[in-house]
């Protein structure tokens, strides 16, 4: 494969919020060329199929998890806590892995069907899987999902297990999206520095300067604690539109307890497990005050991330589910000294940014390019990663 090949890739993401599977298609060379919509130039894909370099509109889709599937995944997260072997699949994890693999296959199949595409139109699928345990200090990270089974069902090569090589080499294994964030920012020639903030279950930032390598790390919680709080008190999956938090009042003493954690002052790079923070200080609060305090906790820890940047950001671009929560967005703008805007404001797909990133990373994996860097995961040298599962395609 030549270094200037253009690939058609599908990326898949099921985040720590465990709400469903996002799937997105991009065309890319794995370097600076990333096309997610528009354009009319035609070229050849790495698999030989003729493709359009860019699409009339972004090709994306979301496949929600059912309530039963989410329950299976939550049991798997609980059962994963004592794991010491990343390949172990005790009963709940084995069941969850089957659920994850099937859901991701269905998501890809639905995207292909919606756009009249077949497996031969796609060069590679980037399959992140579902994180159930992340303890990089123990050189342990576990993402469930059967890459080989997915490749066989789809008839498309699959790159999976993206984090393991970095963790084995002493890195944090996360975040991995910074390479994609940098490609997007540089393609638009933005006034630098820029920070890309992803608000999934956990929040992470990518600081992008002019000449420096990107700096990236997890800042703290994003939606995970808020979603858990809402689920515990109402049974709902999340605080729709931030309405519950908007009615509450931040409890300063509880917020101070939550912020009293050595993680926030620890040097970057650093990363977190979904369940890294104890919600015990919230006990006794009303649902509204608890939600408001957790929103403030998320925003405050994002603001504290600025202490680790070489220079202040000129703008913050926010993606992920938290960008849809106006209460979080308002709290962020109060605490940050630069404009805060959604990814959509700059022409990106905030909801599908992580899925697009894993399509991009799959291509970089196949071409031997780095996925992680000393300034993003703390690994000693730039690292490629991912495991290739080849599809069993017929000669035709």
From TrEMBL:
Transmembrane segments: none annotated. One of its GO terms (molecular function) is kinase activity. It holds the Pfam family AnmK. The keyword Transferase applies. Pathway: Amino-sugar metabolism; 1,6-anhydro-N-acetylmuramate degradation; Cell wall biogenesis; peptidoglycan recycling. ATP binds at residues 15-22. Its EC number is 2.7.1.170. It catalyses: 1,6-anhydro-N-acetyl-beta-muramate + ATP + H2O = N-acetyl-D-muramate 6-phosphate + ADP + H(+). InterPro entries: Anhydro_N_Ac-Mur_kinase, ATPase_NBD. It is an enzyme of class 2 (transferase). The keyword Endoplasmic reticulum does not apply. GO terms for biological process: 1,6-anhydro-N-acetyl-beta-muramic acid catabolic process; amino sugar metabolic process; peptidoglycan turnover. Keywords: ATP-binding, Carbohydrate metabolism, Kinase, Nucleotide-binding, Transferase. Belongs to the anhydro-N-acetylmuramic acid kinase family. Catalyzes the specific phosphorylation of 1,6-anhydro-N-acetylmuramic acid (anhMurNAc) with the simultaneous cleavage of the 1,6-anhydro ring, generating MurNAc-6-P. Is required for the utilization of anhMurNAc either imported from the medium or derived from its own cell wall murein, and thus plays a role in cell wall recycling. PANTHER family: ANHYDRO-N-ACETYLMURAMIC ACID KINASE. This is Anhydro-N-acetylmuramic acid kinase.
């Amino acid at each position: 494969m030549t270094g200037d090949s253009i690939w058609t890739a599908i990326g898949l993401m099921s985040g720590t919020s465990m709400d469903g599977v996002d799937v997105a298609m991009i065309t890319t060379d794995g370097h600076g060329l990333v096309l997610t919509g528009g354009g009319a130039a035609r070229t050849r894909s790495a698999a030989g199929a003729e493709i359009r370099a860019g699409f009339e509109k972004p090709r994306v889709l979301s496949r929600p998890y059912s309530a039963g599937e989410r329950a299976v995944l939550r049991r798997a997260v609980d059962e994963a806590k004592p794991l010491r072997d990343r390949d172990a699949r005790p009963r709940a994890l084995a069941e969850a892995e089957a659920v994850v693999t099937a859901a991701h296959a269905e998501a890809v199949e639905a995207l292909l069907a919606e756009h009249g595409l077949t497996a031969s139109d796609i060069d590679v699928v980037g399959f992140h899987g579902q994180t159930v345990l992340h303890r990089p200090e123990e050189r342990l990270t576990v993402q469930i999902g059967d890459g080989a089974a997915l490749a066989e069902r789809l008839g498309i090569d699959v790159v999976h297990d993206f984090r393991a090589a970095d963790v084995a080499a002493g890195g944090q294994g996360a975040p991995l999206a910074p390479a994609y964030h940098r490609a997007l920012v540089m393609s638009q020639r933005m006034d630098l520095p820029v920070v890309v903030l992803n608000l999934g279950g956990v929040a992470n930032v990518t600081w992008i300067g002019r000449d420096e390598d990107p700096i990236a790390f997890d800042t703290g919680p994003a939606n995970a604690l808020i979603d858990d709080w809402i689920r515990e008190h109402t049974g709902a999956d999340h605080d729709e539109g931030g309405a519950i938090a908007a009615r509450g009042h931040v409890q300063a003493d509880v917020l101070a307890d939550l912020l009293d954690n050595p993680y926030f002052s620890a040097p970057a790079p650093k990363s977190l497990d979904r369940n890294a923070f104890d919600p015990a200080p919230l006990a006794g609060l009303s649902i509204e005050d608890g939600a408001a305090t957790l929103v403030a906790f998320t925003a405050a820890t994002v603001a504290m991330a600025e202490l680790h940047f070489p220079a202040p950001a000129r703008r913050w671009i926010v993606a992920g589910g938290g960008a849809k929560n106006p209460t979080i967005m308002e709290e962020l703008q109060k605490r940050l000294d630069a404009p805060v805007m959604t990814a959509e404001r700059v022409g990106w797909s905030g909801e599908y940014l992580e899925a697009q990133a894993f399509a991009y990373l799959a291509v970089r994996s196949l071409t031997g390019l780095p996925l992680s860097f000393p300034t993003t995961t703390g690994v000693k040298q730039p690292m490629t990663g991912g495991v290739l599962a080849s599809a069993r395609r017929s000669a035709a």
